[in-house]
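The methods section describes the discrete structure representation at length, but only in general terms. Each protein is reduced to its one-letter sequence and a matching series of backbone shape codes. I believe one specimen quoted in the main text would settle the matter. An entry of this sort, consisting of the sequence and the corresponding backbone structure tokens, reads as follows.
***
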Amino acid sequence: MKKLISFLAACLILAGAASAAEDISVYIDGNPLNTARAPYLKSDRTMVPMRPIFESLGCAVDWDEASQSVTSRKGGRVIIMSIGSDIMYADGAAVKLDVPPELLYDTTFVPLRAVSEALNCSVTWSGDTNSVFIVTPAAPEIPMYDKFGSVPDFGLIVGVTPNPVLDDGKIYCYENAPSDAAEKYADVMKSLGFDAFDAGEYVVYTKGGISVLAGSRGGVFRIVITNY
């Protein structure tokens, strides 16, 4: 019975949203955002499915079922939102939301403007066409290793110098790496489309025939790059 009531409530909410603003279109840098569930208006705020908007803005997304929260990461920036909570955390700072995330039809919807602006995007609404236009900021250039132009340079990203460099530039050892170095590097690697596999003390990233082992042991952070 509770599930039926929740289902009917969701129908009423979406029906009301549809009557207020039909066929809302969202564009990111001129490209349409395609979602399985349509965006809708709630309290004059455009609500969009969580995963499509975050991923289209270049974020890695993690959903925690127990806490009903989503964590998105992009270039070291971390955003945390929870269903029903009107507080969003952007890099640890609390941001008040006009409309909290909500779950409808097993899909988490989030306020589009709040999410976009937290990622330093500009947002424009056109009432004439019921369209939202998002413009993303220019992506900062990511430093790469000289011998592997598609692999981000760990040392330049976190601010440490390799010592030593072994195997003709395939193994890099770093002492005194910052405590959050692994997390920062993970954000960059995931933002570039590397797949990540947890191997205990190390994480293995793979993409396009390249494998990157990254992790700390004995106070030394190592990057090992191989072709496969």
Remarks:
- Helices lie at 2-20, 50-56, 112-118, 154-158, 181-191.
- The CA atoms of residues 162 and 174 lie 5 Å apart.
- Confidence is low (pLDDT under 50) at residues 2-9, 14-21.
